[in-house]
Design brief:
By secondary structure, the protein is an alpha/beta fold. The chain has 7 helices and 11 strands. Helix 5 runs parallel beside helix 7 and helix 6 packs antiparallel against helix 7.
Length: 246
């Protein structure tokens, strides 16, 4: 199977270097950049990746545009802060040229403040990333996008390692951006919220992740993640409440 890798990025040269090194097995690597001012171009050139520029349209539409730049029918979508494990690369390489499934899910393992999070509802985290672009595509959601595909998705061995938040500064910077996008998406789908419900949803998120989903097993990083995620939920719904005010 010939596979193209599609990546969207902006000002993430350090993480992109690790990401591109992990997908060297691919027949083609396409990077769709949104005006990076760091060393992204040099990183792409070093790894032989085709670099394209485009405007930001939200995660779903932008990722689908990157898919459209690929030559091969099968596309592996990877974020710049992710890396494909050797086991996952081998599983992809072992696939037949024309598998029955239109899409395949991979198991993502994420880091938070220096620790791998194996509970908190973060793992196992099966996400569809490898798909036949003639039968499947990203939806148009601006955040929390997903691949729409016919029939059940297959599952691949190995891990997609995710490095989103090594510092609280990274988490806070993304929190503001992501909660705004999420609140706008909820409003567009007709959702409404008041301040009391926002607070209750935030508290419920903490206890679900910490107690029911075993966040206490992830030690200090798990505790902080549960509380930080609670604040994320609170912020998202407070923003939704404010968007609904006249």
């Amino acid at each position: 199977m010939k596979v193209s890798v599609a990546i969207i990025t902006k000002d993430a040269a350090g993480q992109l270097d690790r990401c591109l090194a992990s997908v060297a097995f691919a027949d083609e690597i396409v990077v769709l950049d949104q005006g990076s001012l760091d060393g992204t171009a040099a990183v792409c050139a070093r790894h032989g990746a085709a670099l394209h520029q485009g405007r930001w349209e939200g995660f779903g539409p932008t990722k689908q545009r990157a898919v459209g730049l690929c030559r091969n029918r099968w596309v592996l979508s990877v974020d710049s802060d992710e890396e494909v494990s050797p086991e996952l690369a081998a599983a992809i390489h072992a696939l037949p040229d024309q598998p029955d499934s239109a899409a395949f899910a991979v198991n993502r393992l994420s880091r938070f403040l220096g620790g791998w999070i194996r509970h908190c509802g973060w793992h196992p985290d099966w996400v569809v990333r490898l798909f036949d672009r003639e039968r499947a595509a990203f939806d148009d959601r601006p955040v929390h996008e997903s691949v729409r595909h016919p029939g059940p998705a297959g599952r691949l061995q190995g891990l997609l390692r995710h490095h989103p938040y090594e510092t609280m500064e990274q988490y806070i910077a993304k929190l503001d951006r992501y909660t705004t996008l999420a609140a706008e998406d909820l409003q567009a789908r007709g959702r409404r919220c008041g301040p009391g419900v926002a607070v209750l949803r935030g508290e419920a998120a903490f206890w679900r992740m910490w107690l029911l989903q075993g966040g206490w097993r992830d030690g200090g990083p798990g505790l902080v993640l549960c509380r930080a995620s609670s604040f994320y939920v609170l912020t998202k719904y407070v923003k939704l409440w404010r968007l609904g005010r006249p």
